[in-house]
Amino acid sequence: MKMTKMILAALLSTAMLAGCTGDGSSATESGTGESSSAQTENTSDESAAESDADDTAEQFGPIQRDLDYEWDKVIALTFDDGPNTTTTYDVLEVLKKHGVVASLFLIGNNISDESEKAVKYAYDLGCEIDNHSRSHDYMNEMSAEDCAAEYKYVDDKVFEITGEHTKFFRPPYLAIDFPMWDYIDVPFIAGIGCDDWNEKVDVDRRVAVVEKKAKDGAIILMHDAEGNSQTVEAIDRIIPDLKAQGYKFVTVSELFEEKGITPAKEILYSNVEQTGTWS
């Protein structure tokens, strides 16, 4: 009986040892499998992240400027009354198509969580972001404090989005009084317009007016207000036409730099070479 118990004990120990070894082996294999799977997933995630980063860089990289033509004049396209989530993007796509940049003058009250993405997109494309007041009201009738606040609101918003302050200001309706230059310490911009804010002015008229008034050193004033599809069509014709006439398209800052001119106070610039308050 004693011998039988000893044999049974030995057999039980052997079985338990075998069971432990088998379980441990399975656990090891399972752990290795999970580890391999996790590593594969991590590698896939990293590859996807890198791919997304590449896509973002490609999408938001600077516009490849088209300078593969003879140019001896410079001009700046500017757009008022954005940003928005429709027409602003349409304008930017035309700029990309033709390899040119522009300057966008923003209304502060139009900057929202969604439309600020268009601002960042424009900035990343190499466009300049400038200031067109918060409310688009008659600032020449405002107090000094209110004028300064109108400018500062937009400037702060643009800095939050781009990391840069606005460099130029276009007063709403081009309505000014001279003390405004003391309240807002950046150069003032007007521009050569074509009344493209008026939907009754058709595409052909917009094209004809801009091309007739275009001059070396000029600032063109147009609008990317929501729904202004006629201006989108117009610039798709204006840009190649003016290129054929020898114009290079630059931002407002670059326009002054190209001409070697430092902007002065008490001038509302439509051409960087003007010396009087009005062109």
End-to-end CA span? 122 Å
Radius of gyration: 32 Å
What level of helicity do the residues show?
Answer: 40-55%
Individual helix count: 8
Order of helices and strands: HEHEHEHHEEHEHEHE
Mean pLDDT reading: 85
Shape: globular
Structural class from helices and strands?
alpha/beta
Number of strands: 8
The biggest beta sheet, please?
6 strands, parallel
Which percent band covers the strand fraction? 5-15%
Low-confidence stretches: 1-58
Description:
Helices cover 50% and strands 12% of the residues. The chain is an alpha/beta fold and 279 residues long. The strands form 2 sheets. Strands 1, 2, 3, 5, 6 and 7 form a 6-stranded parallel β-sheet that branches. A two-stranded parallel ribbon has the order 4-8.
